[in-house]
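Two proteins were folded this term; both appear here.
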Amino acid sequence: MKLFRTLGFRLAGKGLTALLAALLLALVPACSSDNKDDNGDSGEPNPPTESAEPITLTLDFARGPEIATPALPGSSKEALTGRHEYTIDGRTFAIFADAAANGKFFWSDQAQYGIPEPNLALYFSNIGAYVEFPAIEKLALSTIEYVYSKGAGELPEFDIQTTAGDSQAHSLDFAEEGSGMTFTLLAPTANTAYRLTVLTGKNAQPAKLVLTYTVPES
């Protein structure tokens, strides 16, 4: 009788151990599920999403040809045609002038002729010539402020275009003191490169270009 009771206890103990093991196995998936975030990833929280902030890029050609890398051609004698890319303050820009349209571009020093400031400028000329501005992730180019060089003649007509040559709706406002003008894109798109393009057979000579990039409306 004593032996029977001992065996019964041992059997009951084994059954209890098996039952507890089964319960633990059933609880593991539930605990694991409770520790997951909304994306199904366990433990670590989602990293915060970086919010974009408006920025302003200023191309002040009073800095000289070395404003860009490589340096801009430093005179009319060194003028270039075709498309060339430059790095300015860590951003990539492009300048184009069509040789077939007698276009050219170079850094222009009007100070040598006694022209009052601002008298140092980027010269780019004739139909189809453009300056291409960089695309910036999460931001859209919203305004382009064009500051005149005092040595410039009559302004050409301009358009704002994409790299595919599509014209973009924009407004144009002139400064009251006659120092420049501002192009405002009406429906700018984030991460898109735009061009300031010459439409007539004249030359553009901005002393400064101020670019404002903002978060586009969703």
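Next, the second protein.
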Amino acid sequence: MSIAPTRAQVRDELAVIVTADAARLIAVYGVLPEPLHDVHVERLPIWRKLDGLYGYAVEGRLAADFALNQILDELNDYFLENVARSALIDAYAARPVRGFCAWVVFAAISRWAMDFVDDHVFGIAELAALAGIEESDALAAISTRSAMPLCAYRDVEGYYQVAKVDAVAWLTTQPGYQRTVMLSPGETRFERTAFDDMADLHHYVVRRCEETGQTLAGALDAAGLGHRYTDWVRGCVDGVPELGGVQRLARVLGIHDRAFVLAACKAMRSPSATSSHLLPPHRSTP
């Protein structure tokens, strides 16, 4: 089981941090540079950057137009330095900052070293982040009794270090690790080649809505599907929604549209395609 936080956990923690940081600015300066009342964190540039970094760190996808180095510098300074060292942010936070945002930044830095630094030597924490496991589990892999041993050595200070070639060899045995895929602008990695049936497809859509902080009804309305999707999944109508609607749904969900459409088409042809028990009547969002 991966220890990586979900997108929702990262987004919710960012909302706590931004609100606490606003209170810190008020306490220090008496005013805010801009009003931050009733902030929708999804609309902030920092969330768009952090969300893109999440896709890179956790899902192994990097869009060609994503300013990785600049964003790493900005978010490293903020989450690993400012937030981590600010007693005032802790004091004003509505609930404890558990470090989800910082974990994403650290995991992204570790992946950047794997992708772009040929002579990088990895620490155990970096490899654990890349594999999505606890640091203690990565340490246990150093044992010669491990089924998938990790080749490591101790540096002069006694810390375990792993050469890049050995890090790559070990990570390829870890189910939680994904190699980085470079994507064209606007393209998003989609791992599935097919859905088993309409129930499988529907559960994926619901899960993806949760991961991206959307409601199912809102995503369907944004894709222009509405009740047509509901009837389709219930099996109340023959045929399928027009492919443009399926493509739009993929884009709303932030996934590669061509791969999603192909996987969905295979679900449509499944003998057990319909799933009438899954859906309540669709209601459009106001």
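Residues 223 and 245 are 6 Å apart (CA to CA). The two ends are 38 Å apart (CA to CA). These notes refer to the second protein only.
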